[in-house]
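Narrative of accomplishments. A recurring question from our advisory board has been how the design workflow behaves on a single, concrete structure rather than in aggregate. To address it, we present the structure tokens for one chain from the evaluation set, followed by the sequence designed for it. No filtering or post-editing was applied between the two.
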């Protein structure tokens, strides 16, 4: 009887094309390595570990008390979430020095207000209560985020944003807060200085220094006359003063 021939298998095929002095395990290893190199080289496949996502900073906003400030340190690419926890906020402004464009700001509530360009800042005036603001930062300098109730008895909160990577020429990080703007509805009688709410004289700030202006947030977003002033931080006095 003629013995049956064994059907060639993969091992035989590899041995036939390999160097005879190599065992079949070494041959398989060579072929697999070559195959993987070919696949990666022709398809351009690249494996990378995804970078860790920045954890957003979350802050509560008080539009009931008025006049409070809070410092925020962040870097470009960070996100911050500001949630209204007290009072009713109907107005938000964000300085352009801390965002790339108005699209970096997402407003929840307030009747979906549109962004208004105010040269050095963007503002949003809601037709209802603004509940939350999410911001992706792009910091080129210190800047402010301002909230207020949008009523003549101005109440709100200011966030002073600075970059942890920004430094002065001597290498020290600046700790001087950005200026703060205060406003309330202009009275029908009397002067701004005479009727200014005492609650706006926070942190030892003197009364007075008010002037008449116009703001979009008045009268439910249709605009109106306001009393306004600017506070700046004096390093010489170690406190806030009227500019």
């Amino acid at each position: 009887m003629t013995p049956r021939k064994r059907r060639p298998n993969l091992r035989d095929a590899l041995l036939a094309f390999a160097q005879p002095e190599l065992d079949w395990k070494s041959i398989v290893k060579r072929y697999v390595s070559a195959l993987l190199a070919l696949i990666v080289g022709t398809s351009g496949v690249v494996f990378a570990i995804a970078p860790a996502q920045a954890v957003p900073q979350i802050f509560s906003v008080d539009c009931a008390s008025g006049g409070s400030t809070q410092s925020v340190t962040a870097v470009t690419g960070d996100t911050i979430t500001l949630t209204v926890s007290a009072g009713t906020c109907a107005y938000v402004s964000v300085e352009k020095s801390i965002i790339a464009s108005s699209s970096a700001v997402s407003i929840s509530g307030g009747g979906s207000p549109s962004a208004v360009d105010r040269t050095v800042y963007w503002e949003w005036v809601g037709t209802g209560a603004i509940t939350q603001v999410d911001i992706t930062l792009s910091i080129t300098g210190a800047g402010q985020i301002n909230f207020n109730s949008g009523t003549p008895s101005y109440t709100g909160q200011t966030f002073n944003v600075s970059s942890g990577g920004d430094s002065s020429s001597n290498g020290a990080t600046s700790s001087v807060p950005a200026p703060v703007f205060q406003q309330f509805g202009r009275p029908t009688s009397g002067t701004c200085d005479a009727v200014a709410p005492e609650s706006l004289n926070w942190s030892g700030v003197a009364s007075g220094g008010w002037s008449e202006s116009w703001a979009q947030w008045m009268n439910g977003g249709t605009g109106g006359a306001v009393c306004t002033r600017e506070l700046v931080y004096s390093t010489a006095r170690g406190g806030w003063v009227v500019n």
